[in-house]
Design goal:
The protein has 196 residues and is mainly β. It is 0% helix and 52% strand. The strands form two sheets. The protein has an eight-stranded antiparallel β-sheet with strand order 1-12-3-8-9-10-5-6, with no helix packed on it.
């Protein structure tokens, strides 16, 4: 069927259509990789900064096999050969614990934490969320924002939003997501926003 202009009221989706020319409105994040952790200590992602400008990381039902730990990320500037684990991560967060709001300000953390208090290895104490990593190819601070929910060490339910940066000024080309102790289980995915 040849159509030069589509009338949305009469488009028959059972017909076959061939699109030519530029297609607009089809942009957005593209899935790069998914992973299921089953007792691993971390998941590493190499970044293709020539293809993607920004990244989105999602995690679901991440659970530590160890008590009293936090979930988060560290960055690499050497393709993942080593990860920066010094006090160069600066984070501000706002959390809601049941009905009480609380803030957190980490001024020199060893990794970028996605929870305000620690979790345990109890069966219901898991975390899920989304993090955005902005323009890690820039020779500037790597900026991160996130939204997460989790159940803490005392079985309290948290909803948390935060932002921060890693103070290095070299391009970041790999990410590592992990609990700061022990193995983990759960599902995660990395998406990239293509450069235009």
């Amino acid at each position: 069927m040849s159509v030069t202009k589509i009338n949305a009221d009469v488009l028959d989706l059972t017909d076959a259509y061939a699109f030519t020319g530029a297609v607009s409105g089809a942009g957005g994040f593209q899935l790069i990789q998914t992973s299921t952790l089953a007792g691993a200590t971390s998941i590493d992602f190499a970044l293709d900064n020539t293809k993607y400008k920004d990244y989105m990381f999602t995690w679901a039902n991440m659970q530590s096999c160890t008590d009293n730990v936090s979930f988060g990320l560290v960055v690499s500037t050497d393709g993942g050969s080593s990860f920066i684990t010094t006090g160069t991560y600066k984070i501000n967060s706002l959390g809601v614990l049941t009905t009480t709001a609380t803030t957190r300000n980490d001024t020199g953390s060893a990794f970028f934490r996605f929870n305000s208090s620690t979790t345990s290895n109890a069966s219901n104490e898991k975390t899920s969320g989304t993090a955005m990593i902005y323009n890690p190819a820039a020779a500037d601070y790597t900026t991160v924002t996130y939204n997460a929910n989790y159940i803490d060490l005392n079985s309290a339910k948290w909803s948390l939003s935060g932002a921060g940066y890693q103070t290095g000024t070299s391009a970041v080309n790999a990410l590592q997501f992990k609990f700061n102790g022990g193995n983990a289980t759960g599902e995660c995915a990395l998406y990239g926003l293509p450069r235009t």
